[in-house]
Amino acid sequence: MRKHITNTSYFEELDINDTTAGVIRIVDDDLDWKPFFTKWEYNLRKLVKERYGKAQAGRDFMNAYFDWDAAVFPQPYGLIKLHKQPPKLRYITPMVGWMNKKVAVYVVGFLQLYIEKCKWILAFSTQLINLIEADISNRLLVSQNKSLWVGTFDVQDMYNQIDYCEALQIIYDFAKEEGWVDSKNKKHWNFVLNLVHWVCQTAYITYDGHFYKQIRGLPMGSLLSPVIANLFMTGVEDKATKALESYYETVSTTLAYYQYLDDIIIITTSHMVRIDDSEGCSPLEEDAGTLLCEISKAVVDSSIAFDYTGDA
């Protein structure tokens, strides 16, 4: 596990011997992390002050969401994804006793309401099955539809490939387009997204006596990460879909796109009979691939790639 951590670009090891860095100090031959926690408490307090000023609400927030005793460094464990070839190791980092957990809970409570506004983001896998059955049945009942294709895909290593700074900008831009951000709540939206930045900045782990800071991706194991990933992907997908509207009108393709975490399903239909090419590739499959390529191109600092998992 440690070899996996040290051999990736996702983590940076802390030098616990450098007491001049203002991270730790030695007290009675033991590590004392108080300077470390003081730094992050101060950074959080600055964000809260920008939002609430000197009002009691700011003090209430700090009392409710920063716990000096939440100092148990998260320790990761690995899950082998046997369905991948070759098998891949996915590390999970529980944030149960860590200082950013309560802030993450606060952010999730705010952003989850907006995720529920996105009808193509599915909350449960069972919802996916029912929705697909209804969608395909409705399309088959439309007499103009002569061709139908269904494909499933998986976003490769999604959490680790998302640059959270880029994700926050994409989420904010999408929220403005949807009318979620207005003059009345703009300040609070900025506050919440700054809290996301703080949570990602405080993503630390320990393993085998070593301490690491996560410097790329969303922290695996934080309940905040699925929410940010969902909204990030939604913003990117929305941008890509709008960019291809005229293309799909030209080829007479109607496309439905559904997302459950890192699992994607695309349903394409056409009122024309679309014949597979000499290599057995369906034109409707190519239309779905065009959208996936556009999604991949819509990011700069993040990386979005897809694994094909099946079709019908």
Description:
This is Reverse transcriptase. Keywords: Nucleotidyltransferase, RNA-directed DNA polymerase, Transferase. This protein has about 300 residues and is an alpha+beta fold. The chain contains eleven helices and eleven strands. It has helices at about 1-5, 35-50, 55-65, 100-115, 125-140, 160, 165-175, 185-200, 225-245, 245-250, 285-295; strands at about 10-15, 25, 30, 75-80, 90, 145-155, 205, 210-215, 255-260, 265-270, 305-310. The protein has a four-stranded antiparallel beta sheet, sandwiched between helices. Strands 1-8-7 form a three-stranded antiparallel beta sheet. β2 (about 25) and β3 form a beta hairpin. α2 packs antiparallel against α3, α7 (about 165-175) runs antiparallel to α8 and α7 crosses α9. The longest helix is centred in the C-terminal third of the chain and has 20 residues, at about 225-245.
Give unreliable regions as ranges: none
State the major sheet: 4 strands, antiparallel
How much strand content do the residues show? 15-25%
H/I helix tally: 11
- Average pLDDT rating: 84
The termini sit apart by 38 Å
- The class by helix and strand makeup works out as alpha+beta
Rg over CA atoms: 23 Å
What's the β-strand tally?
11
Overall, the morphology is globular
